[in-house]
Write a structure and sequence with these properties.
Length: about 450
């Protein structure tokens, strides 16, 4: 296929595919697009990833041994999770969103290739167009790898990409069957297990920048709740600490609470949604995690339960007839779709990210993290007020005051006595009740309004 024809077909396919995602105009489609797509198309047909660091690099994996004892011993890398943790550690610390890792979904040590989109990232296309094009080209690359699997069912590796596949198999100790029937079955299974994973390093970096103003406060709350400091990184797995995150199924906020469970812990109404406030949802998450640990007895069960719920783990525990089985025992002895790949991956991601954050100066830019930020206090109103009035009083002192209180959805709506507010300024006792750390732990955020009972408002 000629280069121009390839570029044209990729461009046409991209336009058709992405037309439902973003309005495309001649300006954002044809800015040096043919040359760029020709280059990208060539890289898709014959992957070139000389810049990519190989999985298993000692310089990277040594940090998983926690050489400076910075990670809680509860979350050290065990042999059972080593392959998965190593994979996710690379995803968080080496590869960014312009890298696509092609791998086996069951054996994460089996990595076939890393496809780079550096040229696309540095192009002048808008972000929506870049995203759609990268997604389209990734699908094309996956199709080509699957064609290589079909070819290898009956033939020896010939192309560079086919040789990469064979080398990847040898690296993890897989022997290609000599029997023709077994060989066909072997490569068919590999094809069905092929998965692409986008790198996350830049997303984690962005999350760290967003998290920086909250860090001093949340670290104190972790101590008050007697929780391991590593639990904070669950919010990064859920959303990269994106305060505006919303999933397709309705999970919302930095901790990605679904509405049903969110209402159990936080204020929720037509005009309030505690999930939208990073501070409110963090308090709720700490209550939930503390509750999970109390029920399940172990953190390696309580952490994946944040993602999948406790009921399936409780059922597994009953079936295994063990009071406090480890996650490894549950995963190896109890077969259930809610406790398979998802729970394994969630815990491995957590352990990997805990180690990445423990040695964050080795992988991320800490400029924003080094700044000094004030502690965020929690208040309950004695008086009614509007969000607009409250934020205007403090906007000069606190640029993030509106974000702190994003659980209040309407600026002009009058919120009644008992409304929860967040501020780094010590507000007047005449209008607000400042909650103590003991009070924050004693009740769920949806019940903080009770601390205003018996308190009278004074506007003098």
């Amino acid at each position: 296929m000629g280069k121009l024809k390839l570029a044209f077909l990729l461009l046409v396919g991209f336009i058709i595919y992405s037309s439902s995602l973003v309005a495309l105009t001649p300006e954002n489609i044809f800015q040096n697009d043919l040359a760029m797509i020709e280059l990208l198309g060539k890289k898709i047909l014959k992957s070139e990833n000389q810049k990519a660091i190989n999985f298993g690099s000692k310089r990277i994996t040594d940090y998983l041994k926690d050489p400076d004892n910075r990670v809680n011993k509860l979350f050290h890398v065990t042999p059972y999770f080593k392959k998965d943790v190593t994979f996710w550690f690379h995803i968080y610390t080496v590869f960014s969103s312009h890298h696509i890792v092609l791998h086996d979904k069951e054996n994460l040590a089996l990595v076939y290739d890393v496809v780079e989109f550096d040229e696309l990232k540095s192009s002048k296309l808008n972000n929506y167009t870049k995203y759609a094009l990268q997604l389209r080209l990734t699908k094309e690359r996956v199709k080509l790898v699957k064609k290589d699997f079909i070819y290898l069912q009956k033939n020896r590796a010939k192309s560079e990409t086919q040789k990469k596949i064979v080398n990847a198999l040898k690296k993890v100790g897989f022997n290609i069957p000599k029997s023709s029937k077994k060989r066909v079955r072997f490569f068919k299974n590999l094809s069905s297990n092929l998965r692409s994973q986008t790198g996350q390093k830049d997303k984690i970096q962005n999350g760290m920048d967003r998290y920086a103003p909250y860090a001093p406060t949340f670290k104190k709350w972790l101590k008050d709740f007697d929780l391991p400091k590593e639990l904070m990184w669950i919010s990064f797995i859920e959303s990269s600490f994106n305060t505006k995150a919303r999933s397709k199924v309705g999970a919302t906020g930095t901790w990605q609470f679904m509405k049903r469970i969110g209402k159990y812990f936080m204020p929720y109404s037509r005009y309030k949604d505690g999930r939208l406030s990073p501070a409110m949802s963090t308090l709720a998450a700490f209550h939930l995690l503390h509750q999970n640990k109390k029920i399940l007895k172990r953190w390696d069960l309580a952490i994946p339960a944040y993602n999948s719920g406790t009921k399936h783990i409780i059922r597994a525990r009953r079936k295994l007839k063990l009071k406090a089985p480890s996650l490894e025992q549950v995963l190896t002895s109890y077969d259930h779709p809610h406790l398979g790949f998802a729970s394994n991956a969630f815990y491995a991601e957590f352990v990997a990210l805990s180690h990445a954050q423990a040695y964050k100066e080795k992988f991320y830019n800490l400029e924003k993290s080094k700044k000094k930020y004030k502690e965020i206090y929690v208040f309950v109103t004695k008086c009614s007020l509007t969000k607009d009035w409250f934020t205007k009083q403090l906007k000069r002192k606190e640029p993030l005051i509106s974000e702190y209180n994003s659980h209040l959805k309407r600026k002009k709506k009058k919120y009644h006595k008992g409304t929860v507010l967040f501020s780094t300024t010590d507000l007047t006792k005449r209008r607000y009740v400042k909650l103590t750390h003991k009070q924050l732990r004693r009740k769920y955020p949806k019940n903080y309004h009770l601390f205003a009972n018996g308190q009278s408002c004074s506007t003098k």
